């Protein structure tokens, strides 16, 4: 797999290409990033380049380390010390057909101290041919001695437009749908692909925009309709807040930067343009501040229906109070 097939993360790809070009391939790497940012894809591409193969999975010197690899009976999600011990036995066997042996450990940040101490011994005295790549979401879980002996490669979600372009190139995903998926996923391709199979998420996003739009232009009854919507979808409130966050972000930029700003929710551009025309900079700022306040409150032990009513009332006041729209 070539780096060119990986969307975004140009800085990470530049670092790894430089490593390959100079021949200074280290013994230990940590690929850090959110779930779905392509850590495993990047590791495969790096391994493919090192081993000079298009299919690293079929190469005898490439191993994805899992608990089940060394003991099929192990069902635990965290990487076990016995798994690392099993890997270490193989590490000291020379490569079968190439100059390097590569081990990729998914969910490496789930290793407890015994497992980390076990792999640390390899990091401290690695065979010259050994390359170990740890995949992690949270590097704070690693011992300082692990961090000090590994090269950290951070992976970030691609730009929204990059993710949208990639998703729209896939069969069955229209340009409009791809844009919505890219925004909902925050640019995380893996999450976007999951959402593509989840029609309910797309429908919920549409309804969130519709309810907010109705409250912007409708009567006081539309405010209570918004409250009912939030109460009915309490289980998905985090997702709805993400949708509203992206909505308000676009509105802020449209009010401050004008039409030249490239909004994220391009599939909702006409609705956002109408809403923006109804709001002032001050009212959009108030909407965003209320969103942050109630987003934080929902993770606390508060009366959820009452909180949603208060939030809707603050929205209504920010939108319709003429004194605040100077």
Commentary on this structure:
It is a single chain. This protein is an alpha/beta fold and 326 residues long. The chain has 2 domains: 3-154, P-loop containing nucleotide triphosphate hydrolases (Rossmann fold), CATH 3.40.50.300; 198-324, Zinc Finger, Delta Prime, domain 3. It contains 15 helices and 5 strands. The chain has helices at 10-22, 39-51, 67-70, 81-91, 113-124, 144-148, 160-168, 175-184, 189-196, 199-217, 220-232, 237-257, 269-278, 281-297, 304-320; strands spanning 28-32, 62-64, 101-105, 130-136, 151-154. Strands 2-3-4-1-5 form a 5-stranded parallel sheet, with helices on one face. Strand 3, helix 5 and strand 4 form a beta-alpha-beta unit. Helix 1 packs parallel to helix 2 (39-51), helix 8 (175-184) packs across helix 9 and helix 12 packs antiparallel against helix 14 (281-297). The protein is elongated and about 75 Å long. 36% of the residues are buried.
């Amino acid at each position: 797999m070539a780096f060119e097939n990986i969307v975004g993360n140009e800085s990470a790809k530049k670092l790894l290409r430089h490593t390959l070009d100079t021949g200074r391939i280290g013994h230990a790497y940590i690929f850090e990033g959110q779930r779905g940012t392509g850590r495993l894809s990047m590791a495969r591409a790096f391994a493919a380049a090192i081993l000079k193969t298009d299919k690293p999975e079929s190469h005898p010197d490439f191993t994805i380390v899992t608990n089940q690899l060394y003991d099929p009976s192990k069902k635990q999600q965290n990487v076990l010390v016995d798994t690392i011990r099993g890997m270490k036995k193989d590490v000291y066997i020379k490569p079968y057909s190439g100059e390097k042996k590569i081990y990729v450990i998914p969910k490496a940040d789930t290793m407890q101290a015994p497992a980390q101490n076990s792999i640390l011994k390899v990091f401290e005295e690695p065979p010259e041919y050994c390359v170990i790549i740890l995949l992690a979401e949270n590097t704070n879980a690693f011992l300082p001695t692990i961090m000090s002996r590994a090269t950290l490669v951070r992976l970030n979600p691609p730009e929204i437009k990059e993710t949208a372009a990639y998703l729209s190139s896939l069969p069955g995903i229209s340009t409009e749908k791809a844009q919505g998926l890219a925004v909902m996923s925050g640019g995380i391709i893996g999450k976007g692909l999951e959402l593509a199979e989840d029609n309910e998420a797309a429908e919920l996003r549409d309804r969130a925009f519709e309810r907010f739009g109705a409250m912007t232009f409708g009567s006081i009854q539309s405010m209570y309709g918004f409250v009912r919507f939030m109460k009915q979808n309490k289980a998905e409130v985090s997702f709805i807040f993400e949708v509203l966050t992206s909505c308000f972000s676009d509105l802020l930029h449209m009010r401050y930067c004008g039409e030249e700003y490239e909004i994220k929710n391009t599939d909702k551009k006409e609705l956002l343009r109408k809403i923006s025309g109804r709001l002032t900079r001050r009212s959009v700022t108030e909407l965003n501040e209320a969103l942050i306040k109630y987003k934080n409150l929902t993770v606390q032990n508060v009366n959820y229906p009452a909180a949603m009513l208060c939030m809707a009332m603050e929205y209504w006041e920010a939108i319709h109070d003429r004194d605040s729209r100077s």
